[in-house]
Structure formats: C-alpha cells, structure tokens
Design brief:
This protein is mainly alpha-helical and 116 residues long. The chain is built from 4 helices and 2 strands; from the N terminus they run αααββα. Helix 1 (19-31) crosses helix 2.
Length: 116
C-alpha cells in the first residue's frame, strides 16, 4: 500500500475535499484495519464510516480526536507510519482496545493483558 499524501483537509462539511484524497484515506484506513468496507464498496465520497474510522484511529494513537486529517498533519503522519509497519508484517489487533501488537499474548495486547 502506498503512503498517503493529502492535497486538502478531510473533515466534515468541507466543500474543498479532494475525492482522490477521500478514496486514498479510506483505502489506507481499510488496509490498517480501521475502515470496514460497506456492501456498496469503497467510494470517493465521504461517509460517516470514514469519520468514525479516523476518530477511532486517532483515539488509539492518542492523537487529537476530531475526525480530521490535514495535509502533513499528525493523523496523516501516523497513518503513514502504520502503513510502513503493515508493509513489513501482517498486523494483529487487540480484541479489547483495537491497538496493534505482536500477538505474543494471543488476541490481547500486553497492556490490556496486564489490566485483566
């Protein structure tokens, strides 16, 4: 999966969003396990799933949770870092918090395992 490089901000009620940015963002979020593809497939149009996926990703990475991705911003950079990781190895997500981990504790990451 190629890294993303946004040309415009992705945010609710932004009439200047670039359709290719939206498509690339949905594909990137799907690739890293955050965007579940709807029955109608991945489109270049913004939808609630896109924003909720961005917010979940931001929350998991302890970023500002606002459903916004700006060109060169913290969310774009974090997604690209995740894309680099997943290019090297398959990602395993914790069934409790959804965060990535190495799978050494099965379906639960070490942090969640320690809290149980």
């Amino acid at each position: 999966m190629k890294l993303i490089k946004l040309s415009n901000s992705i945010r609710r009620n932004n009439a200047d969003m670039n359709f290719q940015d939206i498509l690339n963002m949905k594909n990137a979020l799907h690739h890293i396990g955050y965007y579940d593809v709807p029955d109608y497939g991945i489109t270049e149009y913004p939808d609630n799933k896109l924003y909720s996926s961005l917010e979940k990703f931001q929350k998991d990475r302890k970023l500002t949770v606002d459903g916004v991705a700006n060109p060169g911003g913290e969310t774009e950079k974090a997604i690209n870092e995740e894309l680099k990781i997943t290019a090297k190895s398959p990602i395993i997500r914790c069934t409790v918090c959804g965060g990535p981990h190495g799978g050494s504790k099965g379906d639960v990451c070490p942090d969640c395992d320690a809290k149980m």
